[in-house]
């Protein structure tokens, strides 16, 4: 294993203290960045609302076996419950969970990239990751994506460090197994790492003697979850059964809404998912084209391609960047195949975080190597600048989802005797913030009767009937001259 450090010290204790300081710095920097333009709580029919409802049910009725795939994401649910019990049921406590896992991901990755490739590569990775929209979105809404990726990253780095065996290797492999088990219980897309690990053992890139150590960490975590669900439901494969039936729940993203066939390895199901991106050619190629065109990936795959294929920036043979490239490509490929064709779930960007994570590492390793040629340094600057700029711009232009609640609820507090009629789906999205603010009785999703008030987005028509404007609520500019402020009209129906 190649270990390069730019921290000048011969003392192991001093090296560890430097890495601890670096981890803390990355943790704090990530936390601060997530507070800038967070995605925020959406509610309504979103997945985020399902996790909130499950956590509240656990608090009210105690732990229980859920009936949907959302309610079985136990690491996320338990983390939300713990946050609510410690800090109270608040919006901040809900948003704290993904943010802390995002902080953990950034701290762990920064430390290990420094250990294996040096401080320059670690700082480059940090700059890329901090401006990666898909990471920012995942860490600022209460979904499983960043939780799964954090556990998966810990597993990946522990596997890398422990692959040569020995006493230290056994401990690290056990940690890798336990972390991957937690990632799988959070969401099944992390199964892509099992494919990579299996290949590493099969080809002798990791000692086969470490398989048992990995299993000692992996099996107990899976067994505890399985036995607990078995005891509650009487079904030994309850999780698998629930996961396989997820397409039986109505989805607007699925042609026909519901699908009763097999949910894994099913080309017919793959052909029925509504494309996520702008490319609509044929269901067999739409996923990969939309994958490469996703703005939330901030051109990271383009940067990887250019830096690898440009002769002046291509890593020299036997360097760390060259040796790591096929493994990182393997992780990205395994992630894409697992999501799109093995699990056959809707190919949307948030499911491909392991592929994006591998790409950010590859770019950081290549860009962090010494480059003597002026052309190479220029290509490196251009690709890094493009990625960081487009990523930052995407984050700044992304919608701030709680803004309607933040405009309407203060106005309702100033008018406590008014009931405001809102579109049914919008009323659902605003339910949790309204409950926290004590304004749930002032919001109705029913049609607006004559004499009552309704709220609508200013660009939408008022609907049938006659209306008189009462006031306009306007939010702040999210991004000057580009992303205009949200404007809501409150009006009374007079006929």
Please tell me about this protein's structure.
By secondary structure, the protein is mainly α. Helix content is 58%, strand content 5%. It is built from 20 helices and 5 strands. A 5-stranded mixed beta sheet has the order 2-1-3-5-4, covered by helices on one side. Helix 3 packs across helix 4, helix 9 crosses helix 15 and helix 14 runs antiparallel to helix 17. The radius of gyration is 25 Å and the shape is globular. The N and C termini lie far apart (77 Å). The N terminus is likely disordered.
Please tally the β strands and state the result. Answer: 5
Helix content: 55-70%
Outline the low-pLDDT stretches.
1-9
From the N-terminal CA to the C-terminal CA, the straight-line distance is 77 Å
Write the layout of secondary structure elements.
Elements: H1 12-34, H2 47-61, H3 74-87, H4 91-117, H5 119-130, H6 133-139, H7 145-162, H8 166-186, H9 192-202, H10 210-233, H11 238-244, H12 267-270, H13 286-293, H14 300-309, H15 320-342, H16 353-368, H17 374-397, H18 403-414, E1 420-421, H19 424-429, H20 431-437, E2 443-444, E3 453-457, E4 467-474, E5 487-493
Parallel strand pairs: 1-2, 1-3
Antiparallel strand pairs: 3-5, 4-5
The gist of it:
By secondary structure, the protein is mainly α. About 60% of the residues lie in helices and about 5% in strands.
